Amino acid sequence: MTHARSRRTAALLLLLPCLLVLLALFLAPQALVFEASLGRRSAYGGVVHEWSAANYARAAEPLYLGILARSVGLAAVTTCACLVIGLPVAYWLARHAPERHRNGLLVLMILPFWTSFLVRMYAWVFLLRSEGLVNVGLGALGLPGLSLLYNDFAVLLGQVYGELPFMILPLFVSLEKLDRSLLEAAADLGATPLRALLRVTLPLIRPGIVAGCVLVFVPSLGAYLAPDLLGGARTVYAGSLIQSQFAVARDMPFGAALSFVLSLIVLALLLLFRRPLQAAQEA
Amino acid sequence: MSETRRAPVLGSLAALVYLFLYAPILVLVAFSFNQSRLTAEWKGFTLEWYARLLSSPQIRMSLGNSLVVALVTTVVATAIGTAAALALARGRLRRPGSLMALIALPIVVPEIVLASSLLLFFAALGLRLGFLTVILAHVAFCVSYVVVVVRARLAGLDPSLEEAAADLGAGPWRTFLKVTLPGLAPGILSAALLVFALSIDDYVVTSFVAGVGSTTLPIQIYSMVRSGVTPEINAVSTLLLVATALLLLSAHQLERGARARVAAAPALLGLAVLGAPFVAGTGAAPAERVLNVYIWSNYIAPETVRKFEQRHGVRVNVDLYDTNEALLAKIQAGNAAYDVVCPSNYSIQILRAQDLLLPLDHTALPHRVNLEPALLDKPYDPGNRYSMPYFWGTCGIGYDRRRTGPVDSWDALWDKRFAGRILMLDDARETIGAALKRRGRSLNATDEGWLRDAQRQLIDQKPLVRVYDSGSFDAALLSGDVWLAQGWSGQLAKVREENPDLEYVVPKEGSSLFVDSLAIPRSAPHPELAHAFLDFVMEAEIAAEICRTMQYSTPNRAAVALLPPEITRNPAIFPPPDVLRRVELIEDIGDATVLYDRLWTEVKAER
């Protein structure tokens, strides 16, 4: 059918700029880095282009695999926390917030992100430190001070702080266009609100949940600011490890190899969860 | 709507989340009015930092650059990404799934890898680093986010509406404009907001691909944070927030049907704040000749730059970096046109070995006689053929003498009495170096046994250490969070002003010395002017002015007589003479760098 063909041509034209950007500014540069990952570090931090798999063998050592595994764990916990906190908030924004303020509230959610994340992390350090505002407040109430900074709690707090809007926005976008009459129908048929949520709302907003989880999980893997500043850099995660290969050890071949291993882990996880992801896309 | 009111639990949860998101913002705004130089304690109200913003062309320029880059990136990336999302959702393509996976791939790659790959790529193309490369790079990492967000919206929009429009005789354009686009609008808005946020706060990628005159606000901030989160940073962040909030407020009013006149007031105010950097920025007279300086933040005062501009009738571009490695990466890539750079000693060693520096013409540098001989003719640059010392400093211990008593040895950082009150630098060379010095060894040691011993000491020490931090050790010390901090003299010199009980000592076992020097890259477009600049900053009055405003140790002997006593008497700036005899320069150790990095990673991975 010519209609379908012209439609496909139009689609390809629409895709073209995006594919060009990806090809020229992502795939081609990544190919250069992949080539570098097969080489080795020169004495002055350049790349010696003698191919071997040595960097990948090194990345598979328990020291580095352990760090990568811990990063996957942190990213997973961050994603769950963001989903649990983000879902009710997105639901409130989409369903209960006064409609005329809805866009305004959405913008307010992202506005803090227009200031430097680094500076906001330092503000958290100020809030959480032992003589910080939170503990001073607790003291004023006669409560004992808490150790809030330089531990795993602080890392998670920083991670959730940095990623939460990336979960809430896609969830909101899906929830907002959800057909209200479906929920009313469920209620009319006697479904309790909880049942309606589990049986109607959640399946329908699955694309939003998937988009949010991907947008939170994947960047979390490479995070380094929250672990370093709020965690006191007491633990290494993949982000800082790779960062330091490029920026301190000037061992680009090994840093590149680590980064490709990380990407492989992500792709493997996406494959593992292929079913729900596909189902989400078809929904 | 009745439903609106019936959700007190959800509503209060949402309010808590907003409080969570804005808590650090409130801190930041409050501290932009604080008299203290560090975000550590409240000292009283002042508007000084806002006044300083107005007089800092550097911050204004970087703010302006950031806005331009973020706006262009938002428009371009949102358009390209939305088009792709439409094609994927409605185009009946054969394999939308694998295309989508390809498009989402850039999100997977850590930023630093993206950054260095783009630098390699632009260098391979011979593309000069600047605005173009920054915007291209930003578009590259933002497009994927747009596709993901817009597609999530499209996935649930009922295509039958579009089909109905088509059945009723609407053309594809009309259908798109009247049916698809309005349905899509919230998705596009969300995506655009995300892109703007990603772009305006991007540091890693930008620091690798920015060139002459394209320093953005995050680069400025990161390099300023090296000397503590200053209230200027808080002030500029506050202004940016207020301005964007005003603009958004008027957009919101327009959307709600307010008259254009009502909405115009906040919009104009917001535009005025955002436009100020551009208007004020044009104050500098355009000059034929320019000098491009690439230097650490807080290393040269605007007044000094202005004097040079006036004397030579030129314009000086100052761009900033915050690590030697960022500087090395750019000079090695070879596509940035800097005339003067300020590498530290070991970086000069690396640049020299790769023949990337121009031999200096000593006849054009008569004022070099002012320099302290003890800091000249070092192994990293024999005879100073390639570099002239600019600032120097040491690594040592900052401590609160009321709590710790006198400290003169690295052993204090291993003292169990101070458990949980010790800060170590997050730096393989300095921490391993301190442990080596504790045993009386060179901090450039490459003997594996010695290094293993140093590592063991650091692992034993770890339970005592509260935090590893190379950026804000001064604030941690000032706030009382730690009592002892390993740190560099420049920052620790300044905390004494705020709390005279904070002392600085270079331990008796010895420590590291760094010399940041000015040098001229071989690829410099204006080598003659660069020589003039090097000589200019070695003049006694100029060197004294630089030392007075920046408060780092000057290598300029002639300048010392011109300095006020509160500076010459500060032992962190002018240490007792025996200190120079027990410090050692950190050298590039070639392949052993990898071993140091590995040993340090093992220390950090220890739980």
What can you tell me about this protein's structure?
The complex is a heterodimer of chains A (283) and B (607). Chain A has 283 residues and is mainly alpha-helical. Chain A is built from 14 helices and two strands, in the order αββααααααααααααα. In chain A, strands 1-2 form a two-stranded antiparallel ribbon. In chain A, a hairpin with a 5-residue loop joins β1 and β2. In chain A, α3 runs antiparallel to α10 and α8 runs antiparallel to α9. With 607 residues, chain B is of the alpha/beta class. Chain B folds into three domains: 262 residues, MetI-like (MetI-like fold, Orthogonal Bundle); 153 residues, D-Maltodextrin-Binding Protein, domain 2 (3-Layer(aba) Sandwich), CATH 3.40.190; 141 residues, Periplasmic binding protein-like II (D-Maltodextrin-Binding Protein, domain 2, 3-Layer(aba) Sandwich), CATH 3.40.190.10. In chain B, β1, α14 and β2 form a beta-alpha-beta unit. Chain B starts with a helix and ends with a helix. The chains are: A mainly alpha (283), B alpha/beta (607).
Low-confidence stretches of chain A: none
CATH architecture annotation name of chain A? Orthogonal Bundle
Instruction: Give the name of the CATH superfamily of chain A.
Output: MetI-like
Number of domains of chain B: 3
Residues in β-strands, percent of chain A? under 5%
CATH topology of chain A: MetI-like fold
- Content-based structural category of chain A: mainly alpha
Task: State the end-to-end distance of chain A.
Answer: 26 Å
